[in-house]
């Protein structure tokens, strides 16, 4: 799968509005059919283009309990 930018998400929504098959849209963008449907569902619910967040777990700083023994 690839990461979709806002331009690609807009394209997906436009194609869905035209009535293009979900499988065709998904194969062109190299994402799953489920993700295309989810993006379109979010668009229909809010009326706004869905924005994707950063992937992965949020970064956090290690605590002093962890840092001190490692540095020693």
How would you briefly describe this protein structure?
This protein has 72 residues and is mostly helical. It contains four helices and no strands. It has helices at residues 6-18, 22-29, 33-46, 64-71.
Describe this structure in words.
Helix 1 (6-18) packs across helix 3 (33-46). It is elongated and about 65 Å long. It has 4 helices and no strands. 60% of the residues lie in helices and 0% in strands. It is an all-alpha fold and 72 residues long. It has a single domain (1-52), classed as Arc Repressor Mutant, subunit A (Orthogonal Bundle). It has helices spanning 6-18, 22-29, 33-46, 64-71.
Write the layout of secondary structure elements.
Elements: H1 6-18, H2 22-29, H3 33-46, H4 64-71
Helix pairs in contact: 1-2, 1-3, 2-3
Low-confidence stretches: none
Largest sheet: none
Report, as a whole number of angstroms, the end-to-end distance.
Answer: 43 Å
**How many helical stretches?**
4
What structural class do the secondary elements suggest?
Answer: mainly alpha
CATH third-tier fold name: Arc Repressor Mutant, subunit A
Count of DSSP strands = 0
Order of H and E elements: HHHH
Average of per-residue pLDDT values: 90
DSSP strand content: under 5%
Taking all Cα atoms into account, the compactness measure Rg is 19 Å
**Helix residue percentage:** 55-70%
Coarse morphology: elongated
Examine the secondary-structure arrangement and name the CATH architecture: Orthogonal Bundle
CATH class: Mainly Alpha
Overall number of domains: 1
């Amino acid at each position: 799968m690839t990461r979709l930018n806002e331009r690609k998400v807009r394209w997906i929504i436009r194609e869905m509005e035209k009535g293009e098959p979900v499988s065709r849209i998904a194969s062109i963008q190299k994402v799953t059919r489920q993700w295309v449907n989810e993006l379109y569902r979010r668009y229909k619910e809010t009326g706004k283009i869905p924005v994707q967040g950063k992937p992965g777990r949020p970064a956090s700083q290690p605590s002093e309990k962890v840092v001190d023994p490692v540095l020693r």
